[in-house]
Fold:
Amino acid sequence: MSPRLRWRKFVSGFMLTMTGVCALVAVSVLFFILGYLVYHGGTSMSWSFFTKLPVPVGETGGGMANAIVGSAKLLFLASLIGVPIGFFGAIYLAEFSGGTTAFVVRYAADLLNGVPSIVIGIFAYSLVVLPFKQFSTLAGGCALGVMMIPITLRSTEEFLRAVPNALREAAMALGASKWKMIATVIVPAAYRGILTAILLAFARVAGETAPLLFTAFGNEFWSPGWNQPTASLPAMIYKYAIAPYDDWHRQAWAAGLVLLGLILIINIVARAVLSRGIAVPRS
Amino acid sequence: MATTTTTVPSAGPVAGSRSFLSRLRDGDEIARLVTFLFAASVVLLTLLLVFELWQGSALPRHKFGFNFFRTSVWDPIFDQFGALPFIYGTLVTATVSLLLAVPLGIGAAIFLAELAPARISDTLEFFIDLLAAVPSVIYGLLGVFIVVPLMRDYVQPALKNTLGFLPLFTGPTYGLGFLTAGVVLAIMVIPYIISVSREVLLSVPRDQREAALALGATRWESTWKVVVPFARGGILGSIFLALARALGETMAVTMVIGNTPIISSSLFAPGYSIAAVIANEFTEATGALYTEALIELGLVLFILTFILNGLARLLIVATSQRGGGTGHA
Structure:
């Protein structure tokens, strides 16, 4: 073996090993984050975290019950906005339209998807907070809902498109009208994919903090209604993490563990739904 | 579900209703209309977003014009608003993050696409996807409690001792600052670079690899001199995508950048970014000009990410179409 070839082989082996190291480093970050959160969050977690209200600085104990309920309310509102628009919009894109309209809708959705979340916050602020002159759960839900739309829309469309054309033709040949074909054949055939799309969109907005800062704002107590500011888990993590109190830091770790656990579980479930007994070939 | 489409409009015309109904083709036109309304609302929302940003930033746009981007005094009390420190901070942190994330991300993508068996590659990709799903406030939390002390006590002193002659690595080491924000951002954008680059690399046709190997290239040479150049456009797209994410990222940066509106040549110094100043000051902004100056910053962010995302999409689509075949080794 000539020295030159030996050198080339060495470079090849070395660089390929380095790429492996890169992959290992990237993936190990996930386990590091998980491990650290479980370690710190787990030791700070207690039953009262889920059942009690936050307590003033100096007192120990307390929890984030209001933030958990607040997050649930916000996500419920977000789904009310994001899921129907995403779902029916995707049906329009995949089944009814072609050409210019579809292009414009897709373009708008991609544009919306790329907008930084803090800008979505400004949008919801001027759209909902300013007219009502009030930070509110409603405004926060709208901000998250707007973020859900493009994710749900684009991936639902992908899954609808992946339904084989033969199914459409068969339904039409049996005399079904188009909407009947969509409702009874296409959507059921793609329902796993659609469920995955919705779950992923849900998980994505569940951890969003920036758009909530000046829409849902925050609250030390239970939020009495939909038109009042509310606490939420991500915003609480932010507030507690940058505060200078050790007790609050522990709460922030616990909240971080709950939030991350929730999001990772939804992600894993969403992917499991997709891969089990799949009716539709993935595009 | 689609049951909404079954309703026949109650106020249908009585005379000639038969032809009207047949035009409805058993409800198809209603279904089309209803779904169209939902689809159109997406376009409407997007237009409304642009309109609100433009309308909401009218005051500072007229008052300061281009000086908004050129001056560096941010003084709400005297109604002086110059965005330069924020733009500088945003660009510096994004640059630092890309310098760290691009080599690591592309390296990992090469491993996943070229080297790892499909099974391992898919498993690792699953973890990478999970990593991409971790919310930014969690990265911020870890940034505050792990990265900041680590930078303050170890990394920054070490850099200062070895590369201290460069103006980049001078001054006191607070921990909070451009460098820390860049590192946290890098960790956040790596999954995006890996996912997209891996897809693009996998779409490079198998012949390309085989031809290179047949000519006697080593595995690395075939990857680096043939496959990667073939996928160059798409990889560049993934970098633009990561850049757009890094520019718009709010929470993690806000928590570790130090939130001080000064321009400093040292990476150790605390700074500020566009997204961070909006997050911190929007709720307490008093007076129309102050609020609208922040909205104009939002507009700047929007335009930047709009351009980058557009470019990224073009590059990725163009490269994927050029490849077409799946080239899994």
